[in-house]
Design brief:
By secondary structure, the protein is α/β, with parallel strands linked by helices. It is built from six helices and twelve strands. The strands form two sheets. Strands 1, 2, 3, 10, 11 and 12 form a six-stranded mixed β-sheet that branches. A six-stranded mixed β-sheet has the order 4-5-6-7-9-8, with helices on one face. The two termini are 28 Å apart. The relative contact order is 0.18. The protein binds fe (ii) ion (FE2) (2 copies).
């Protein structure tokens, strides 16, 4: 099977990029499943049920998130009711929502019904403190592997070392680990010896004439003065960033990983 992971969708320019480019990418790569990080999809800050619905309508099958999870208060509705919506797994046990799920892959070319496990975790280096993603991630992968060998992980983290170490820990146990959060696409896509595809950061989907998707001037002003600023979503040079991963259905091992950086017309 082939899946597309879309890096952090930033605001309406990011959503428009998904709307415009996903049909083309689906055809070009014969995609079976689409996962997108939606933590910045509502004006750069969080996500609402209406926006999640919009992303699902464009062909996104599962939405992952990260540290911007709580920016919109309506997110609680998604956490409580929407199975296709994931938050970092490593929140304390009584927090609403789920950090993983198993989803059926809808594709008539498969003789037997196939399913994919998707897991979302958040790192702890230079990030708000959460439970240990390493220990919780290992336990969760054991549970997921009892249901399917095809497993995708969005590890939302700042530090490259934390991301690489986490992915190395899961080599051979999951199909792919792709990092999000830094909004800068890295060029280190590879398949580890055990068969796990890896990319330190998928990048972000939105306006790249910016600082990580925001207007340049206010960000610069904050660095120059230390004064708080409103960071509006920028507008220009909109790109869809992510990765296409091909996975062997029987073993769950990755066959190929290819970075995606597509611009809207
Ligand atoms: Fe983000
Ligand atoms: Fe983030």
């Amino acid at each position: 099977m082939k899946l597309l992971f879309i890096g952090d969708i930033v605001g309406s320019p990011g959503r428009n990029a998904v709307k415009q480019l996903l049909p083309k990418l689906r055809e070009q790569h014969a995609l079976d499943f689409v996962i997108a990080n939606g933590e910045n999809s509502a004006g750069g800050n969080g996500i609402t049920p209406k926006i999640a619905e919009e992303l699902f309508s464009y062909g996104v099958d599962v939405i992952t998130t990260g540290d911007h999870l709580w920016d919109q208060k309506e997110v609680v509705e998604l956490l409580e009711n929407e199975k296709r919506f994931l938050r970092p797994l490593n929140y304390p046990a009584n927090v609403p929502g789920r950090g993983s799920g198993v989803f059926e892959i809808q594709n008539s070319k498969f003789k037997i019904k196939n399913s994919i496990g998707v897991m979302n975790l958040q790192g702890r280096t230079f990030m708000p403190p959460l439970e240990n993603p390493f220990t919780l991630g290992l336990d969760e992968v054991k549970r997921l592997r009892a249901q399917t060998k095809i497993i995708f992980v969005d590890f939302h983290a700042e530090a490259t070392s934390e991301k690489i170490a986490f992915a190395r820990m899961l080599d051979g146990q999951v199909s792919a680990v792709v990092g999000t959060h830094t909004h800068v696409q890295t060029a280190d896509e590879q398949i580890f010896p055990g068969g796990t595809a890896y990319l330190t950061d998928a990048g972000f989907t939105g306006p790249h004439e910016s600082v990580l998707g925001r207007e340049i001037e206010p960000v610069l002003k904050r660095f120059l003065t230390g004064m708080p600023q409103r960071f509006e979503v920028a507008k220009n040079r909109v790109l869809l960033h992510g990765a296409v991963i091909e996975i062997d259905d029987a073993s769950g091992k990755a066959v190929k990983i290819q970075r995606v950086s597509e611009s809207i017309v």
